[in-house]
Write a structure and sequence with these properties.
Layout: H1 9-29, H2 31-56, H3 61-92, H4 94-116, H5 120-138, H6 140-166, H7 168-178, H8 184-223, H9 228-238, H10 244-260, H11 263-288, H12 297-311, H13 313-331, H14 337-343, H15 357-369
């Protein structure tokens, strides 16, 4: 007769720690392969309703998938075209902007030197050393190699997306066969919930980016800030990164306003950005994005930082949808439901956890004694 021995807590904790470490290590060393696959998988899930719609219209499945992939490529090219046109205008005006930036930096250094009694030469030396170290750490050859890898990845993405859509039934059947028949209902529920939340979140995020790009650009144009459209689009893209992206965006706007306009425009830009963020957080996000992914703010910030440490910029963008998918899985597995609850944004008014009576009595006795 088989005897089941329950492992002690320290053994389970050690196994969990080793598993998490192995997973993160694998994600780190295999990021060049894993990141494109994850992007392609999420995009394929997003495009799946369009493919199904075209198939219902009696269009051949291969042609339907091809149309969906080419449409996604067209949207990306259109966005890149708008960005490139704005960047070209920025590059033409860059010499003047750099001259203004040097003057502003010099004035700022003079103010710091007078205010804090620090010699200007010492500040310049520190800035020069920092710049040299940054250039040395940048490793131009390594960055060129990474740029080449990015180009190869971008070229492979449409292929990955096409194959994910084409082999969808094969992959679903593989997942079904991994589990016993009594678990098929739960597995199907997890897959449906994952697909729904991914499609809703990504589509909502895309529409939020469009709205934020328009609001940012119009607001900056009204203030007369140069490169308003480019800055508006960059701010909308940064806004995808929860909490941290907004901070980076407002500092970028304030820096451009300080260099191209005057110090009072820094305050105007800060007020404008605060108004736009208020509209985004209270009207746009609750109706378009937040209702799709129920993650609390603490978890969102932590997973974004972990994603940045493991996968860089891609990790910052992918961390939220991947965590949302993990929450769906946790919520459907009994032993993992507490972790799903921890990731969620439902905050109980009070905790039902209470200390045993003996501990309460001892604690009160000690307090009286003191």
């Amino acid at each position: 007769m088989d005897i089941f021995v329950k492992p002690p807590f320290y053994a389970k904790a050690a196994l969990i720690f080793i598993s998490v470490f192995a997973l993160i290590f694998t994600m780190r060393i295999g990021q060049e392969i894993i990141i494109p696959v994850v992007y392609a998988l999420l995009t394929a899930i997003l495009l799946n309703p369009l493919v199904n719609f075209l198939i219902r219209k009696k269009i051949n499945r291969l042609i339907a998938i091809s149309i969906a992939v080419f449409l996604s490529i067209f949207v990306v090219i259109a966005i890149l075209y708008v960005l490139s046109s704005q960047v070209s205008q920025f590059s033409e005006a860059y010499p003047k902007l750099k001259e203004k930036m040097d003057v502003t930096t010099n004035n700022l250094l003079n103010w710091i030197s007078e205010k804090f009694s620090i010699r200007k030469a010492k500040i310049n030396t520190w800035i020069s050393d920092t710049q040299k170290e940054a250039i040395r750490d940048f490793a131009i050859a390594e960055k060129l190699s990474e740029a080449g890898q990015v180009v190869v990845t971008v070229m492979l993405l449409p292929v990955y997306i096409f194959l994910f859509l084409y082999y969808k039934t094969l992959l679903l059947e593989f997942i079904r066969r991994l589990f016993r028949s009594e678990h098929h209902i739960v597995v199907a529920d997890v897959l449906m919930s994952t697909k729904k939340i991914t499609q809703s979140y990504l589509s909502g995020l895309f529409f939020e980016m469009l709205i934020m790009a328009v609001l940012n650009s119009v607001g900056l144009l009204l203030l007369g800030i140069e490169y308003a459209v480019l800055l508006g689009i960059i701010g909308a893209i940064l806004n995808v990164i929860p909490y941290l992206g907004g901070i980076i965006g407002v500092f970028l706007y304030m820096a451009i306003a300080l260099v191209t306009k005057s110090p009072e425009y820094v305050i105007y830009v800060a007020i404008l950005y605060a108004i736009i963020q208020f509209v985004d957080n209270n009207f746009i996000v609750p109706r378009i994005v937040a209702s799709k992914v129920q993650l609390n703010a603490l978890v969102s910030i932590i997973v974004v930082l972990i994603g940045s440490a493991v996968w860089g910029i891609s990790g910052m963008f992918l961390s939220i949808p991947l965590t949302a998918i993990a929450k769906v899985i946790f919520d459907h597995i009994d032993p993992l439901k507490p972790w799903g609850f921890l990731l969620g944004n439902i905050v109980p008014t009070n905790s039902r956890f209470s200390l045993p009576k003996k501990i309460k009595i001892r604690s009160s006795y000690k307090n009286k004694k003191q």
